[in-house]
Amino acid sequence: MSHLVQFDVDVNDPAFLYLNLHTDEEIKVVVRRHWAGFLGTIAISLAMAIFPVLVIILSHYVFDAPSNFTFFLIVLVASYYLFLLTFIFGAWINYYYDIIFITSERLLNVAQEGLLSRQVSELSLGQVQNVSAEVSGFIQNYFNYGHLVVETAGEGSGETQSKFGLQGYFTIPDLPDPNRLARIILELHRSIHVKEKL
Predict the structure, then answer these.
(1) Is 0.85 topped by the overall pTM?
(2) Which of 8, 63, 99, 107 is the most buried (most CB within 10 A)?
(3) Are strands 169-176 and 145-152 parallel, antiparallel or unpaired?
């Protein structure tokens, strides 16, 4: 899991230029979504991959399909698998390129939206009021991943139905070790308030 959470980050890396970091802003932690969050997509893809095989078996042995129908069925199944591969590739891109940056000043959520689009949401750590981790179910507890919910003074955004659209919540799903990330964010929030008081 160490590859999912990275602490030593080179701010001058050209890969991070799109973040538009402020002067003296440092990237403290880079977090990628946990791989177990992708298991649902894999399960759906496997079920979708098995379905045409069942159709071919039924059409060949049960219904005794004519030979000209077999050619049509092969073309249809090949098109179906091409669509399925495109679906899996798009879902993998969306999963793999979702990255969370915790800097000395902000929380940046980079969400890949399709092949050619990304959405960057940012939240000033000074606005943070509370941070909590939601780890539920056997799989999330076993692999130690879950949702990170940041309560803010401003408007929120979210991807879970329980917090979706509620003002003041910034929800990020499927993060590894969310309790540790919550502590890191709260410590950075406190250090910002200490600096402001000095």
Answers:
(1) no
(2) 107
(3) antiparallel
